[in-house]
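User: Here's a chain of 200 residues. Predict its fold as tokens.
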Amino acid sequence: MCGIAGFIGREGQPREPARDILEKMTRRLIHRGPDSEGYWQSADGRVNLGHRRLAIIDLTPSGHQPMLTPDGRFVLSFNGEIYNFEELKEDLETAGCRFAGTSDTEVLLQALATWGVEPTLQRLNGMFAFALWDNLARKLWLARDRFGEKPLYYSWQNGMFIFGSELKAVTPHPGFKFDIDRNVLSSYMRFNYVPWPCSI
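Assistant: Prediction complete.
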């Protein structure tokens, strides 16, 4: 199953307090990934990615996450399974990529780094949610499978972007405010769903 969590904070945020928050968020997902946990922070402490791992395909430490490309440009925290990863791996090896392990995570990361996010998403067959940070472009990508099998919650409040595999991974962040929007609640009661682009 696995679980991901993370946030982008403000410039100049101290790393230690940010790490404490990230650990609290990620540990809320222990039931999704009891085998290991991992954390990654940018040098300035602004970008924080966490992961809880349920080891299935590659049981070795080479499948540990968040996972970085060899050059350190891309960082990936991934939940799910890529069904066609062996086919993608063959294509990547033909293009000159080398792999340290046998996980679909490493194949996904190399695909994203080699082909780019949107072309890779077009080629993926699987159920997934992931966060990809590009250290060079200073850009965060969040994506999930076409049918939304793997959950992904996010919040943009007061200059903070927070995300996680479950709502309870987002709520420990002190920047997350979860007041009920009464207008949206009214829409929910009227239509029996929350209309886009609102959130309750």
